[in-house]
Design goal:
Blueprint: E1 18-22, E2 33-41, E3 48-54, E4 57-60, E5 66-80, E6 86-89, E7 93-96, E8 102-117
Antiparallel strand pairs: 1-2, 2-3, 3-8, 4-8, 5-6, 5-7, 5-8
Length: 124
């Protein structure tokens, strides 16, 4: 099988991403617009891998599965429900446990590489 390569550098033209849509749970204005490019999506569970970008705005996180992401560009914050705000910028990585809820605040358009894992994934 041939490996899938996404040239996801900061210089990847936005028009090479697809799935253009507004975030589902915006908080105020402006409403963030998301784009993504999926490299792999499992046919048997929630596993997917790709590159995602989002324009400035605030919204509620809606991913129920576990997620690992590395930020390639931009700056944002994530405030988990009941916990302190986390600042994220280019070069940072983060792991979200399943059902992590909170508020995103995209300050400067972000681009991240991500892996979505099924809820029942066991981490060591």
């Amino acid at each position: 099988m041939i490996p899938v390569v996404l040239k996801a550098s900061v210089n990847l033209p936005t028009d090479e991403l697809d799935t253009i849509s507004p975030v589902s749970r915006p908080i105020g204005e402006p409403v963030s617009i998301m784009r993504s490019k999926i490299a792999f999506k499992s046919s048997t569970d929630a596993t997917s891998v790709g590159v995602w970008e989002c324009s400035p705005g605030r919204w509620r996180r809606q991913v129920a599965e576990a997620e690992f992401s590395t930020f390639l560009s931009g700056r944002c914050t994530f405030t988990p429900d009941g916990s302190p705000t986390i600042v994220l910028e280019a070069g940072d990585s983060i792991y979200f446990h399943p059902n992590t809820n909170g508020e995103w605040n995209i300050i400067e358009a972000v681009r991240k590489a991500y892996v979505i894992l099924p809820k029942n994934t066991q981490l060591v």
